[in-house]
């Protein structure tokens, strides 16, 4: 079976389990029109990727059978409208309470992130703090790389912005990220490129105070 068909069948199985699960191999085989062996191969692959959960179900007649449902990790594969909801709520807040409320909202988020991550910066050199910040941002999906450009001087690049749609509309998101970096690194930080302003990445120049 070619790779495209393998991927397509896998997606169909995931969609079936999302809409009609839990299902047995036999039930999936009938719905898909492929052999049970082929279904089991896909099931095995998805179990290795932690996308499925299995449960043994007793039947009125015959042996117990395994049925499959989606694991929590699989939920990430389906479209979400969280970002649009966030934008709608922020627009509503802006209209109702004005720019100052939006400013305070983003500043509050910055304070929480700073409190969460500040302990990870303790007793570290500037280079170690930059490396730790890269780790933090990668954990949050920013696809970071960084390099040393001189003595206590670094370039820090983010190739993805998970909150890009919010940042495009509300510049406070970018301002607070810059302030967060300055406080966590205890260093001079300047942003020279910004995804929200049309660049291919966000670039920060970091140096000792």
Describe this structure as you would to a colleague.
It is a single chain. With 209 residues, this protein is α+β, with helices and mostly antiparallel strands. It has helices at 3-20, 25-32, 36-48, 82-97, 99-117, 126-139, 164-169, 172-185; strands spanning 23-24, 52-57, 65-70, 144-150, 153-158, 188-193, 202-207. The strands form 2 sheets. Strands 4-5-7-6 form a 4-stranded antiparallel sheet, covered by helices on one side. It is elongated. The termini are far apart. The model is unreliable at 1-5 (pLDDT under 50).
Structural topology:
Blueprint: H1 3-20, E1 23-24, H2 25-32, H3 36-48, E2 52-57, E3 65-70, H4 82-97, H5 99-117, H6 126-139, E4 144-150, E5 153-158, H7 164-169, H8 172-185, E6 188-193, E7 202-207
Antiparallel strand pairs: 1-3, 2-3, 4-5, 5-7, 6-7
Helix pairs in contact: 2-3, 4-5, 5-8
Percent of residues in helices comes to: 40-55%
Gyration radius, rounded:
24 Å
Distance between the termini: 59 Å
User: What's the pLDDT, averaged over the residues?
Assistant: 89
Morphology call: elongated
Order of strands across the widest beta sheet?
Answer: 4-5-7-6
Range of strand content: 15-25%
Spans where pLDDT lies below 50 across 5 or more residues:
1-5
Largest sheet: 4 strands, antiparallel
- Alpha plus pi helix count: 8
H-E string: HEHHEEHHHEEHHEE
How many strand units? 7
The chain-level structural class is alpha+beta
């Amino acid at each position: 079976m070619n790779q495209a068909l393998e991927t397509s069948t896998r997606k169909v199985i995931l969609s079936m389990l999302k809409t009609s699960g839990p299902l047995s191999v036999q039930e999936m085989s009938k719905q898909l029109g492929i052999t049970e062996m082929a279904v089991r191969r896909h099931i095995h692959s998805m179990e290795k990727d932690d996308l499925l959960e299995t449960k043994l179900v007793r039947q009125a007649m015959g042996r117990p059978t395994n049925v499959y449902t989606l694991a929590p990790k699989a939920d990430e594969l389906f479209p979400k409208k969280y970002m649009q909801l966030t934008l709608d709520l922020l627009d509503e807040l802006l209209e109702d309470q004005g720019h100052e409320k939006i400013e305070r909202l983003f500043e509050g988020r910055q304070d929480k992130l700073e409190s969460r991550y500040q302990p990870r910066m303790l007793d570290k050199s500037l280079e170690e703090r930059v490396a730790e910040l890269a780790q933090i941002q990668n954990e949050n999906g920013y696809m970071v790389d960084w390099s040393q450009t001189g003595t206590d001087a670094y370039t820090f690049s983010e190739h993805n912005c998970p909150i890009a749609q919010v940042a495009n509309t509300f510049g406070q998101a970018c301002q607070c990220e810059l302030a967060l970096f300055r406080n966590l690194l205890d260093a001079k930080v300047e942003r020279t490129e910004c995804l929200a302003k049309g660049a291919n990445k966000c670039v920060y120049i970091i140096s000792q105070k």
